[in-house]
Amino acid sequence: MSRIELSDVSKRYPGGVLAVDDVSLDIKDGEFVSFVGPSGCGKTTTLRMVAGFEQPTDGAVSIGNEDVTDLPPYRRDTGMVFQSFALFPHMTVAENVAYGLEVDGGYTDAEIDERVQEMLDLVQLPDVGDRKPEQLSGGQQQRIALVRAIAPEPKVLLLDEPLASLDKKLREEMQVELRKIQQEIGITTIFVTHNQEEALTMSDRVVVLNDGQDEQVGAPSEVYDEPVNQFVADFVGTANFFTGKVSASGDGGASVDCGGVELDVERTRFDVGTDVTVIVRPEDVSLGGGPNRIEGTLEIARLLGSATEYRVETAGGQEVVSLSHARRNVEPGDDVSVTIPPEDCYVLEGTVDGS
Ligand code: ADP
Ligand code: MG
Predict the structure, then answer these.
(1) CB-facing half-sphere around the CA of 184: CA atoms within 13 A
(2) What is the per-residue pLDDT across 329-344, written as a single tens digit (0 to 9) for each?
(3) Ligand 1: which atom is nearest the Cα of residue 37?
(4) CA of 44 to the centre of ligand 1 (A)
(5) Contact by Cβ (8 Å): 204, 34
(6) Domain architecture of the chain: domains with CATH
(7) Is the sign of the CA dihedral 65, 67, 68, 69 positive or negative?
(8) Where in the numbering of this chain does the ABC transporter domain appear (predicted)?
(9) Torsion angles phi and psi, residue 10, rounded to 5
């Protein structure tokens, strides 16, 4: 088990693309860290530099306090699972799991058998060892790919969108299971996903990447509740943005003038006159009267299962999204108002347009 350290790591591909731009990270021993960001932001490239399949153009990678920057993949002691987690089709499940142990060497046949069984037990598939991969479901194959990677007891586990090909329900089950297994064996893990919900629910910390740079590194609640910029706010969940200027600020609270809508916010560290963006999560917006009441018209109500999403167009022409567990008797076209508690207004300097 080991920490992973990236120091000022950059990667420019031969064609000229700067895929990773000066990223530094310190991942603690036993930590589960997700890399999340839109397609092409550099998640896979960063992971492959940790694994050793890509060489950084600049910077250094260390695993377990050892500088591995110049070591080939097989000397870095990592276990990796890819999105296309292809098991070897001609081998049995047990042979697949044993594969890494045999490549590693140094295990007796009896030790290998024992370890394979231990791994199959770990993912609650004790009896599938003699089957061929094609005789397993997608989710079962995914579990086997995972234990194939961890059987040789690597120092770190590197997962590149391993659940992306599973359907929603199975993916959610596997999220829970994967996290349980990771905690059980305490292995330092980097998990790459483009799915923000997956990153938030599974991780100790989340690294939000954009254009090769780490925009924010923090606990899931930090990046969700206190995003450092609009990109992070927007990427890790749905966000309502209100742009305006701080119009009053004092010990009792502050106000932001958002052109026609005056929002009371609990506090702001910005001076009166500063251009700001107020960020409000949909679950903090409710239909009805109360503080920060904004009048509008219901555009659409969407039942999402346990919650309903209401999109309201304000008199000023802005769409405000509200998410509620209560179902309301309203129809598109109805006059409605929304209300936002001042303590749920999060204020960032600057406006969405980047000024
Ligand atoms: P992600 O995994 O976040 O989708 P990648 O790390 O795969 O992103 O890619 C980051 C950027 O690097 C993209 O612009 C991609 O097109 C480019 N890229 C990835 N692999 C290569 C490669 N082998 N050669 C050249 N450019 C690449
Ligand atoms: Mg990728």
Answers:
(1) 12
(2) 999 999 999 999 999 9
(3) 3
(4) 7
(5) no
(6) 4-233 (3.40.50.300), 239-349 (2.40.50.140)
(7) positive
(8) 4-236
(9) -130, 155
Residue 19 CB–ligand 1 contact under 6 Å: yes
> Which residue among 12, 17, 36 is best mutated to probe the pocket of ligand 1, counting the most ligand atoms within 8 A of its Cβ?
17
Is there a contact between 41 and 211 (Cβ–Cβ < 8 Å)?
A: yes
At 132-175, the pLDDT tens digits run: 999 999 889 989 999 999 999 999 999 999 988 888 888 898 89
Instruction: Specify the pLDDT at position 355.
Output: 39
- What pTM, to 2 d.p., does this model score? 0.92
Please give the Cα distance from 298 to 77 (Å, whole number). 56
Among protein residues, the one with the nearest Cα to ligand 1's atom 26 is 13
String of DSSP letters for 149-162: HHTT--SEEEEEST
Q: What number is the average pLDDT over the span 258-286?
A: 93
Q: Is 40 in the pocket of ligand 1 (CB under 6 A)?
A: yes
Residue 330 · residue 301 · CB < 8 Å? yes
Distance 207 CA to ligand 1 centre (A): 17
Reported as a single tens digit per residue, the pLDDT across 43-83 is 999 999 999 999 999 999 999 999 999 999 999 999 999 88
- Is any atom of ligand 1 closer than 6 Å to the C-beta of 16? no
Could you tell me if the CB of 205 is within 6 A of ligand 1? no
